[in-house]
Amino acid sequence: MTTTLINIKAEQERVKEQIKAQGLRVLVCAGTGCVANGSLKVIEKFKELGVNVRPMTQQDKVTIVPTGCHGFCEQGVLVVIPDLDVTYVRVKLEDVEEIVESHIKEGKPVERLLYVDPKTQEHVFKNEEINFYAKQTRTTLANCGEINAESLDEALAVGAYEALHKVLEKGDSDWVIEEITRSGLRGRGGGGFPTGMKWKFTAANKGGKSYVVCNGDEGDPGAFMDRSVMEGDPHKLLEGMAIAGYAIGADEAYIYVRAEYPLAIHRLRVAIKEAEERGYLGKNIMGSDFNFEIHIKEGAGAFVCGEETALIASIEGERGMPRPKPPFPANKGLFGRPTLINNVETLANVAPIILKGADWFSSMGTEKSKGTKTFALTGEVNNTGLIEVPMGTTLREIVFDIGGGIRGGKKFKAVQIGGPSGGCLTEEHLDLPMDYDNLIAAGAMVGSGGLVVMNEDTCIVEVARFFMNFTQNESCGKCVPCREGTKNMLKILERIVKGKGEMKDIETLEELATAVKDGSLCGLGKTAPNPVLSTLKYFKDEYIAHIKDKKCPAGVCEAMKTITIDAELCKGCTKCARTCPVGAIEGTVKNPHHIDQSKCIKCGACASACPFKAIKQS
Amino acid sequence: MSSQTHAGLDYSKVDEILASYEYKKSNLIAILQKVQEVFRYLPLDVMTYIGTKIEGLSPATVYGVATFYAQFSLQPKGKYEVKVCDGTACHVRGSMPVLNAIHKCLDLKDGKFTTEDGLFSVETVSCLGACGLAPVVVVNGTVYPQMTADAIKTVIETIMGEERGN
Lengths: 618, 166
Prior knowledge:
The structure holds two protein chains of two kinds.
Chain A: H1 8-20, E1 24-29, H2 32-36, H3 39-50, E2 62-67, E3 79-81, E4 86-88, H4 96-105, E5 115-116, E6 123-124, H5 131-134, H6 152-157, H7 162-170, H8 173-183, H9 195-203, E7 211-216, H10 225-232, H11 234-248, E8 252-257, H12 262-277, E9 293-298, H13 308-315, E10 339-343, H14 344-356, H15 358-362, E11 372-379, E12 385-390, H16 395-402, E13 412-417, E14 423-426, H17 436-441, E15 450-455, H18 460-474, H19 480-497, H20 504-519, H21 523-527, H22 530-538, H23 540-547, E16 563-565, H24 575-579, E17 585-586, E18 594-595, H25 605-609, E19 615-617
Parallel strand pairs in A: 1-2, 7-8, 7-10, 8-9, 11-15
Antiparallel strand pairs in A: 1-3, 3-4, 5-6, 11-12, 13-14, 13-15, 16-19, 17-18
Helix pairs in contact in A: 3-4, 7-11, 7-14, 8-9, 8-11, 10-11, 10-12, 11-14, 18-19, 19-20, 20-22
Chain B: E1 5-6, E2 9-10, H1 11-20, H2 28-39, H3 44-53, H4 59-68, E3 80-85, H5 88-92, H6 95-105, E4 120-125, E5 137-139, E6 142-144, H7 149-165
């Protein structure tokens, strides 16, 4: 049967004309971060004040476009007006009128709403001149923040479904797999497994029913790139899934999204519905004989479901527990059928690779890690947000150029990379090109790309305890070494931060770490000890300080604090004694008071109550 | 059969939900989510009911799934569900003092997570993906960014004030 595909170029021209007719486009970020900062009200206000205005650019009208995440969440609400070459940050409801009256109508920029460079203290107009964006290479995130995520037309205008069209036109699934293999794309969910190889393994079982599953269970605390893609450019993900489906011979797919991302779920539903209605998904896609149906499955709050076999169990409606491999999902996955599982960021790379070619993709990155990687840059840096850089970018460029350095002029201490499965990198790694293999060698991993920057005031032992508490909570309980091992490691770490550790605890921690790594079925257990091992490797002295000297060098661990009353400054007002929740303060009126250290719980309530600043914490 | 009442619970809604998901085993999680939306928790009797209605499931399996996922609660949640994010970014920027302030403000002690009047329930969640705004607290879907102990107190007191007004 011969089929005629739609003319996608003509369709693109049509929607581009439509967008041109919108006149001056005002892009207001409507990602989770900016919505929390009140962007929906800002959008309403713009619509109320701006649409009937005649802009100074002589365009016919003004159109307000709610977009996906720009990544610079901390500076939200972000308002970008491309035709006026301007990006406004921290826009509040009451600022809208001034932007409309002064800039859109009169052409006078509102300087106070421009981004201020933390180094030069100068105002910056254009997005690409803000240091946060200047050093980025945005491919997976290219359209996030540029288009209305709830409009298929806007997605088509920036090239959505063009790659799928190319694939359908060529009609050669082997070519698709070859192209993905040649590009060198590796799984962006953490493991770094070559994507092309995974596709090849699954395609080998062609014939019967197979499935594509997109892993959108972004559970790593501190990472939100997948959320941004799903919210900001959902069609790019859907297109990547359809191409994967074509390559492996699947006509049905699931996106598993964690329930904590309601906006992402909503935008995906809107996108799937519109794409199906207009023939970009569903039956006879773009006039071909290729059918592809995508369902959404909501998670229910279990970190372990990020592991592929656990995720499959969860889609099937069961407890999300990992299954032994083999059989690999490529042979026997969802409902017992061959299944291809890739994460959101991996699949978002597919359409650009098909469209621009494997050579384009492999020209970026390092020898064994090609392309770009998104990182969620958070913690104690000046510019926090979502970034995308070529693989091999150094930590220094990320933290000091894009991130604008450490907040409040403090000293860089370490970054925790890869969340609860990753490890930490210190000053000695600042110039290390970051890719899969270099990070593994340094005892960390790319993981999902969470990058939490810590300064001298962060206690590294407490951070290790935090991650162990997380994995211990999230361990599904199937493998005893993981279930009991993480629990005992946590107990030891809790003891250490409470000042009750012993030197042999360090050895026990290392021993348990090996047992948990070796004795666990899935990635959760195999990587759970990493934060402890890597902090022990680089910050052993801090552990020792906690254990031997009963001191927390960062001054974080409450149990190590000593609170004392300066007898010279104390006027005997009795306020502290009355405030103390455990009755640890003794003294009589008008005489200096005294803290019984054996009773004190170091809560610091007395210090905030003292009117004479006589209470010191050290 | 469609609208039987057991232990004061309206089962007709459960039947509707089961029907809309075609009594399918693989839809169990979605079914439990919808049921929890209706009752604000998963009553034991309802779980048993679901376990007997879907082919291939037992009440024990339903209970097993319900207790596996953090989202499901076997105790009633409050009218206002307060979720304090304790993801890495929020933790590093001080989510624990915020949580303590909420506990103090609502007089929640000894592991209790719902207030006496059923107005508030408080839980921690791992990462809501709003890391750039850390620390965040979500109350019934509304995200409150860059929280401090004082700021969250104001949020809660405002809600309490509105409730008293009603």
